[in-house]
Amino acid sequence: MSELTIAVAKGRLQAATLERLGRVGIHADEESLASRRLWAGDREGRYRFIFVKPVDVPVYVEHGIADCGVVGRDVLLESEADLLQPLDLQLGRCRVVLASHKPELLSNGFGMLRVATKYPRITAQYFGARGIPVEIIELAGSVELAPVLGLSDCIVDLVETGRTLDENGLRVIEVILESTARLVVNRASFQLKAERVSQLIKALGESAKEES
User: Fold this and answer.
1) Tell me, what's the pLDDT at 174?
2) CB atoms within 10 A of CB 41
3) pLDDT tens column, 48-89
4) Are 8 and 88 contained in the same domain?
5) Number of domain units in the chain
6) CA 16 to CA 19: how far, in whole Å?
7) What are the φ and ψ backbone dihedral angles of 60, each rounded to 5 degrees?
8) pLDDT at residue 108, rounded to an integer
9) Burial 89-119 (b: 16+ CB within 10 A, else e)
């Protein structure tokens, strides 16, 4: 029986994802996890885990390098990858928000707004739907600094507690979307490894219900 490869987003979701998989009897090899290797097997040789940046999870799954993956809804909406999304795992709940140090941002007609973000597609769709002209400034990190230092009027970013926003004098103007971790599946794998994939979906689905 061939391995089922699961792409796991490194960072804030990794520990929660592995913990959830462990609850349904899928345990990554501890020696591999303790090393610097970017992959690990499970104890029974049924699964292989690859650990990649969140933005790369949809790429690995869409191209069939991984059969399945776990990544946030925010990443999926930004990537627009052609994947199946059979399950909301109810992990890593957070929000993509519009934030600024100008509370009146959307009410006073600032004209062209400069928006700093790691989510250019989501940002363009959000402002486009409202008919607000924007200049999107794409950043890889430290987005909160942009309005503080005058690079932008506002930001669109992912937040969990909002503490970083508060510490930088920013406030949430509007919540654009809610995001939780999703199980995603390669379309070919869903057909060719139907039994294995279905078992995984069922087990994780039951676990997610227990959490809700």
Assistant:
1) 94
2) 16
3) 999 999 999 999 999 999 999 999 999 999 999 999 999 999
4) yes
5) 2
6) 5
7) -65, -40
8) 62
9) bbbbebbbbbbbebeebbeeebeebbbbbbb
